[in-house]
Amino acid sequence: MILVIVGSKGMLGSMLGSVFAEYKPLLLDRDEIDITNSDSVRAVLRAANATHVINAAAYTNVDDAETHKEDAFLVNEMGVKNLSEVAKELSATLIHFSTDYVFPGTSVDGYSETDSPGPAVNEYGNSKLAGERALKESGCNFYLVRTAWLYGPNGKNFVDTMLQLAQTKKNLSVVEDQVGSPTFTKDVATYIKTLIIEQYPFGIYHAVNSGKASWFEFAQKIFEYMQNMPVIVKPVSSAEFPRIAKRPAFSILQNTKGPQVRVWQEALREYLTLFAR
Q1: Cis ω on the peptide bond leading into residue 119 (within 30° of 0)?
Q2: What's domain 3-156+180-210+250-263's superfamily in CATH?
């Protein structure tokens, strides 16, 4: 396997590099490859003679995507189109990440891999949905892996934000009417490794830690595990915490066909043990 990881300096990309280290992947970020430029993608992947490409590069600023729609679509749609077309030319397998935000978030039971995505409730979700369509239309061999509520080392995330706020505040207000599956990047990377090594059928997969929680419940659990941080967490509604972009209320992803993933509480405890500052 000649593995290329694109977006290798990001939170998910860096964890993928660690989990796949034994395969000596080629680690690429924006300085080495411009996924929005088809010539750049073709030259780099051909030179590497890639057999597997993991795309962990994305425009992920949900609020900024509302006012920078073209930038979001350039990376999240055109970037995917370029990678998938070159992957097809090379007969390589492309592993691409999408998001729970491609769903409207109206189903309290969540969404399975067979549910049709859309309509998204914000431009970030729309751009990721467009990327999914480009991937499916390309004709390449792909794993389309949706994930959600990611946290891990080497990137801005909810867990670290809570811990940083707790350094100066003993009372925190956290939204309770948005529900999803908190997910550790280590478990996503391990999930991808299993898909590839065990040669799961190509198609759509949902890689999230098992179980669900609101942001409020997620925060409560963080401080329950961090016993040296006596913080009071207050539940509030989304209306009391306005954001530029609307968020889906129930963005729960069901993993019905992929490798089983541990419960989110166990993953969170490990992350805090290893990485909490």
Answers
A1: yes
A2: NAD(P)-binding Rossmann-like Domain (3.40.50.720)
